Write a sequence for this structure.
């Protein structure tokens, strides 16, 4: 296995310099070329079942990440990256894309911390490990999050076929089985029925995942980490009375086709992560040739969701465009929308409340804000009659100050607020202590 280590939003540089010990083979270059400059949405789950992408796969926050590329490779064999972070590999070449705030390109406290806050998972110790082991750790730690989201929609049930041989006929008679089992006739009849059951291939997949996690000494604690998780684990255990650990491969194969049930939407996410955990050995040893495997995060989305965990305490609303949730109208009356293009014309800023609009930006803003971003924020402020607008972005330099600009015309202020990411922490616990200070002082 060859390992390439790089950070997000990295400018062009010779690809060999990113490999550990600067050792890169011709095969590594060929593998990189297979995924370089390929849009993430073109890496379908059907063709690459061991690749998970957040948020595109698991929510409806938007599909901009689908147009992003894992990395780009030019004719000079130089690599650049976007805001995508995580772990990805193809054949024997693995790529570890850390946040640009990772200390010494090794301990990525900031990425781990955002994941902990957004997915409500616990990290007790952060140690640099191999790409595949890091994938596995992330998957297991995220399992309770998706288990909870799925089971809030109720325990999954599905029609199952059952075979009976008794005197209580209530289905279709199975002639062949009846002749085999009930001659001479003793009063029983062989028949089959279709019944709604909680014991099905979906709940069995979850049960197999739970039992697998129990065997992992370093992560089995997550199944007992809180009352809600323990209750849902107990529900799955009770519902899957036919569980047999020897049938794991059979259950995996039955779940390779993803659930598309309109009522159980959250189960699709849980199904994917269960498959990833149970098929970890396949990922680890690269048995599937030319298949892309790993777990990727859109840094912009993760940054926005992390800020939400802070700003919601200050009363900010966090609309979701793709879910048509929240937001406000551009026009005073709904029928006025029809004067343009018969569209509902709702606006979805990242965060807003009363007299304040906030736009979360993961990109660098030290040298100013782009024209389109500026026009968008001004539009939001105008339609909401907000006197305050702000961009919040992460930065490494503690000395960068907040800039405030006065708008002409109707007035108002736009601020560019740097959010300092600690760079001198010696361990993860120290990093958390330092970043807590900036979270408490994010609002002026």
């Amino acid at each position: 296995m060859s390992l390439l280590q790089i950070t997000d939003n990295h400018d062009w540089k010779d690809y060999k310099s990113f490999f550990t010990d600067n050792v890169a083979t011709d095969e590594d270059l060929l593998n990189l070329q297979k995924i370089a400059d390929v849009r993430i949405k073109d890496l379908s789950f059907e063709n690459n079942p061991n690749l998970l992408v957040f948020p595109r796969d698991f929510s409806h926050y938007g599909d901009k990440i689908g147009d992003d590329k894992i990395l780009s490779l030019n004719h000079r064999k130089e690599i650049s990256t976007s805001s995508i972070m995580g772990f990805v590999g193809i054949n024997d070449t693995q790529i570890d894309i850390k946040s640009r705030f990772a200390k010494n390109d090794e301990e990525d406290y900031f990425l781990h911390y955002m994941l902990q806050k957004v997915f409500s998972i616990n990290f007790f110790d952060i140690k640099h490990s191999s790409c595949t082991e890091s994938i596995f750790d992330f998957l297991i730690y995220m399992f309770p999050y998706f288990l909870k989201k799925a089971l809030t929609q109720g325990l999954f049930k599905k029609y199952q076929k059952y075979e009976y041989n008794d005197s209580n006929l209530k289905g279709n008679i199975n002639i062949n089985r009846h002749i085999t089992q009930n001659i001479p006739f003793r009063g029983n009849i062989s028949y089959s029925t279709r019944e709604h059951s909680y014991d099905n291939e979906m709940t069995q997949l979850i049960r197999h995942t739970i039992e697998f996690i129990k065997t992992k000494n370093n992560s089995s604690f997550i199944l007992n980490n809180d009352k809600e998780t323990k209750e849902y684990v107990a529900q799955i255990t009770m519902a899957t009375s036919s569980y047999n650990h020897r049938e794991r491969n059979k259950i995996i194969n039955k779940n390779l086709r993803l659930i598309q049930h309109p009522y159980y939407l959250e189960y699709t996410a849980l199904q994917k992560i269960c498959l990833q955990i149970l098929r970890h050995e396949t990922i680890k040893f690269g048995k599937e040739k030319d298949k892309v495997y790993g777990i990727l995060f859109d840094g912009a989305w993760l940054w926005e969701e992390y800020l939400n965990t802070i700003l919601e305490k200050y009363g900010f609303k966090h609309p979701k465009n793709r879910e048509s949730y929240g937001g406000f109208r551009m026009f005073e009356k709904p029928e006025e929308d029809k004067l343009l293009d018969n569209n509902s014309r709702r606006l979805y800023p990242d965060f807003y409340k009363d007299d304040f609009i906030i736009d979360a930006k993961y990109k660098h803003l030290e040298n100013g804000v782009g024209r389109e971003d500026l026009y968008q924020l001004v539009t939001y402020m105008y339609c909401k009659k907000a006197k305050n607008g702000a961009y919040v972005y992460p930065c490494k330099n503690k000395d960068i100050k907040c800039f405030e600009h006065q708008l002409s015309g109707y007035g108002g202020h736009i601020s560019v607020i740097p959010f300092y990411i600690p760079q001198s922490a010696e361990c993860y616990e120290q990093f958390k202590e330092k970043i807590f200070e900036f979270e408490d002082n994010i609002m002026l």
